[in-house]
Amino acid sequence: xxxxxxxxxxxxxxxxxxxxxxxxxxxxxxxxxxxxxxxxxxxxxxxxxxxxxxxxxxxxxxxxxxxxxxxxxxxxxxxxxxxxxxxxxxxxxxxxxxxxxxxxxxxxxxxxxxxxxxxxxxxxxxxxxxxxxxxxxxxxxxxxxxxxxxxxxxxxxxxxxxxxxxxxxxxxxxxxxxxxxxxxxxxxxxxxxxxxxxxxxxxxxxxxxxxxxxxxxxxxxxxxxxxxxxxxxxxxxxxxxxxxxxxxxxxxxxxxxxxxxxxxxxxxxxxxxxxxxxxxxxxxxx
Length: 286
Prior knowledge:
Shape: globular
Number of strands: 15
CATH class: Alpha Beta
Strand content: 25-35%
Largest sheet: 8 strands, antiparallel
Helix content: 25-40%
CATH superfamily: ApbE-like domains
Strand order of the largest sheet: 1-2-6-7-8-13-14-15
Order of helices and strands: EEHHEHHHEEHEEEEEEEEHHEE
Number of domains: 1
């Protein structure tokens, strides 16, 4: 029997599935983990650890914030700066200064000149320090981290799947997962690991007649201009899938396909002109 729970957290719909009887306790604990981590990692909550770090520039942080910052900084190094948690100021400048629900409900989005001045962050023991003026956004990687933590809890009850607005973490079982392509949806079967999608077709808004989205190109401080519409990646866990999907999206279709093939990263690339490219050893059955 599959037990299911849905709720909202981290600005999106969360779905928990576990193949077990009597899994109410595990489902409740997994939901609680999402709310706990949101209270720590949200840049929209003034009392979160992340908001305090962004305000003060330094913080003796708890283990979860430290770990997510460490993962994000390692990802920046590994992706050559494409995945960069210090784009916070550029996101705010583009108008993403409130929750997306608040932005979507307004006819006019407040924007300012882009802040391209990125900087550095350091984790030293229990302390995180930011360069002057630097603030962090951990939205995507935070969701992947929360999905993985929730999956660990659910897995104590049985095979499970956690879907955090498209960031998916799986532990055991056989789970069909739908992936959008340029044509009809593709169904993949996952039994472990994670999946994530990054694209410019979801979290978007308009400014002065221009469509903007939340994926910032660290080189320009502006929403990325790329020939890709969205990228879906399968990886060993949801955090790695989120990092790879964002990095490949910013690379553009040709380079993303080459990099995914070289690294063996299974990816579905959908271009703005309606093409679907399978990369990293992933191929559609005839």
